[in-house]
Amino acid sequence: MKTFPTSAVWCFGILFISVSLITTGSSEVQVVGPADRVVALAGDDVILPCSLKPNVSAEDMAVEWTGLYLKTRNVHLYRQGRDSNEEQFTSYRGRTSMFHEELKNSNFSLKLTRVTLSDAGSYRCFIPTLTSQVKNTTVQLFVGPAPIPSPAVPVLSMSLLRLLCSLLVGSPYLLVTIILLVKGCRSRTQGETRVPRKTHQDQLGEFLPYNTTAAGSHYGILNTVCTILYYLLVEVETRMD
């Protein structure tokens, strides 16, 4: 009766164990998450991916979503076929949900709405009922500040100005009147600059200028009107070019 050499028996045993381990490892269900971090802006809704590989039905399984940076850590809990968030962290209440219809496809992803800057951090998806060695995965969430809206541009004044310009272009007589008025304003302003300032003599014999505040207010109004008409004329000339 022939007997196998001892070395051959050992080699066969090691080969059998190796094949068994490879087969077992390849069929073991594992929890997997995203390869990269999840990025969102404050105020957005975001999904934290978590699933099983290979794909198996997970309707009867439990899942615990926790924040690794939180003291109480409880972000969302699903067990016995329903959400169980009695001990959920306060800031997450009303903002978390799971895709129950996708549990049959081993999808444990968590949806987080109205993301805030304080939500940024590491989240763990843990499947306690799983018999595999890899029962959890970690998801990194980065939250950036929401973009600041640009201030509203005051378009009413420009729209009104363009409307007036359109009217002026369509009415030559009105345009000529405006041009003559602007020239008159310029002539009046230039003439006023050549008028010498009047003075009066005080008790000490010193000459002081008159208080022209009241009179100056009328000229200020006139100058304002002239300025508006001037820019209006420039806009009209631009439109005509």
TrEMBL record:
Protein name per its UniProtKB record: Ig-like domain-containing protein
Keyword NADP: no
Gene3D superfamilies xrefs: Immunoglobulins
Keywords attached to this entry: Disulfide bond, Glycoprotein, Immunoglobulin domain, Membrane, Signal, Transmembrane, Transmembrane helix
SMART domains in alphabetical order: IG (SM00409), IGv (SM00406)
Stored InterPro entries: Ig-like_dom, Ig-like_dom_sf, Ig-like_fold, Ig_sub, Ig_V-set, IgSF_BTN/MOG
Pfam family, one: V-set
Leader sequence residues: 1-27
Superkingdom of source: Eukaryota
Any GO BP annotation: T cell receptor signaling pathway
Primary residence: membrane
GO CC entries: external side of plasma membrane
Domain Ig-like: start-end pairs: 27-140
Keyword Signal: yes
Gene Ontology molecular functions: signaling receptor binding
Localisation: Membrane
TM spans (from-to): 160-182
